[in-house]
């Protein structure tokens, strides 16, 4: 699999200075963590789930979460588990173990309890080869250890490498008086099981719920200050670039229908050219994607990579804005040249900024990691062209 692999090779060659790399579910954890991109959630109750998974893979989805938790009713859990077992068996039949035939994205199951992990790993049978891991809800030190021990037991029983993606969404993490202690406990737990933790996910909907809040489509998570403060503290403690941190993914964007607007669109006209690109701009505005685009940019500026998505229309914007620009790539390569090891300051090749080698080194390393999985756009290519190409324009 590869990002933008669903578009024609000749189109990729026109768009990319360096194309996204190919990878598989067996690739290194560091590469997979960077490559998650827009992780699309789906309720595990969907009767044609196998069809849905393959259809979304054909549209460029790289990672999916099949949810047994908040997206389904408590009374549906047993039926949803049975459906997952059936759908994985169907997928296993339709996707060859040798790589022949259609291949699904990276698949994760969001469970409710530690016991579900070992139970489902056993019940999936040969279909376990299609599973990359489990998403662990409301993760704290107290709850998390049991989940991760069950994950280790499932690995041992199946012989399949399985990753964990803890969701940071508990009230203890949100509340000021318990936040520092909760973060410290989470850090101890994920560090102990570091080889199994692929990424940390932020449950911003639960954060808002604790205070009866819901952000409207013209506002991002960063406009809700109580949420922004938690994101900042999570990145501060768990997203460091000194080798102790983890990939932290961006919060979900809830909107995908037309809403009546109180404020002017956030999407400037200038990046969009005449003709179809203006139609694309209008379509993005009508579906509240302009707010999503702004939040994606703020995610990256605040140290997050990838994003939780609940609608297929959100996937391509996340991926298009994850592509490294030619300017970013040029700066990162200049900073990381061997002759720069001693530090110093240099003018960027684009002659519009200062690149200070030592302070910008960690940024440059992260940028090249993103470039590997999402590619580097050609000098004259921006996110508008990437969006349009991904939509078949």
What is the CATH class designation of the largest domain? Alpha Beta
CATH homology-level superfamily of the largest domain: Phosphoenolpyruvate-binding domains
Give the termini distance in whole angstroms. Answer: 22 Å
Number of strands: 12
* Low-confidence regions: 258-264
Helical element count?
16
Mean pLDDT level? 90
Gyration radius, to the nearest Å? 21 Å
What's the structural domain tally?
A: 2
CATH architecture of the largest domain: Alpha-Beta Barrel
What is the spatial order of strands in the main beta sheet?
A: 2-3-4-5-6-7-8-9
- Strand residues, percent: 5-15%
The class by helix and strand makeup works out as alpha/beta
Cα shape? globular
Order of helices and strands: HEHEHEHEHEHEHHEHHEHHEHHEEHEH
**CATH fold node name of the largest domain:** TIM Barrel
């Amino acid at each position: 699999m590869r990002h933008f692999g669903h578009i024609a090779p000749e189109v990729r060659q026109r768009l990319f200075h360096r194309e996204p790399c190919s990878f598989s579910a067996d690739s290194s954890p560091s590469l997979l963590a960077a490559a998650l991109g827009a992780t699309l959630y789906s309720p595990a109750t969907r009767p044609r789930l196998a069809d849905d998974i393959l259809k979304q893979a054909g549209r460029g989805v790289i990672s999916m979460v099949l949810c047994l938790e908040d997206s389904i009713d408590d009374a549906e859990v047993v039926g949803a588990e049975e459906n997952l077992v059936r759908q994985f068996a169907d997928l296993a039949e339709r996707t060859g173990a040798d790589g022949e035939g259609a291949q699904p994205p990276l698949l994760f199951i969001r469970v409710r309890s530690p016991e579900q992990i070992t139970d489902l790993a056993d019940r999936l049978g040969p279909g376990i080869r299609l599973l990359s891991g489990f998403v662990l809800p409301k993760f704290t030190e107290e709850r998390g250890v049991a989940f991760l021990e069950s994950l280790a037991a499932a690995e041992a029983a199946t012989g399949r490498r399985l990753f964990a993606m803890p969701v940071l969404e508990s009230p203890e993490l949100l509340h000021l008086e318990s936040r520092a202690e909760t973060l410290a406990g989470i850090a101890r737990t994920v560090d102990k099981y570091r080889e199994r933790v692929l990424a940390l996910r932020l449950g911003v909907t639960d954060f808002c719920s604790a205070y009866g809040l819901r952000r409207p489509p013209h506002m991002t998570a960063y406009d809700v200050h109580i949420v922004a403060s938690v994101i900042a503290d999570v990145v501060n403690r768990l997203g460091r670039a000194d080798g102790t941190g983890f990939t932290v993914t961006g919060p979900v964007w809830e909107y995908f229908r037309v809403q009546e607007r109180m404020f002017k669109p956030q999407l400037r006209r200038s990046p969009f050219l005449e003709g179809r690109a203006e139609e694309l701009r209008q379509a993005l505005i009508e579906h509240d994607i302009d707010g999503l685009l702004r939040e994606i940019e703020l995610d990256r500026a605040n140290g997050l990579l990838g994003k939780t998505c609940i609608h297929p229309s959100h996937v391509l914007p996340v991926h298009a804005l994850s592509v490294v620009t030619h300017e970013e790539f040029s700066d990162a390569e200049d900073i990381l040249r061997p002759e720069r090891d001693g530090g110093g300051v240099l003018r960027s090749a684009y002659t519009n900024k200062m690149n200070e080698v030592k302070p910008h080194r960690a940024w440059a390393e992260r940028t090249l990691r993103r470039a590997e999985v999402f590619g580097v756009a050609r000098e004259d290519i921006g996110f508008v062209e990437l969006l349009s190409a991904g939509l078949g324009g």
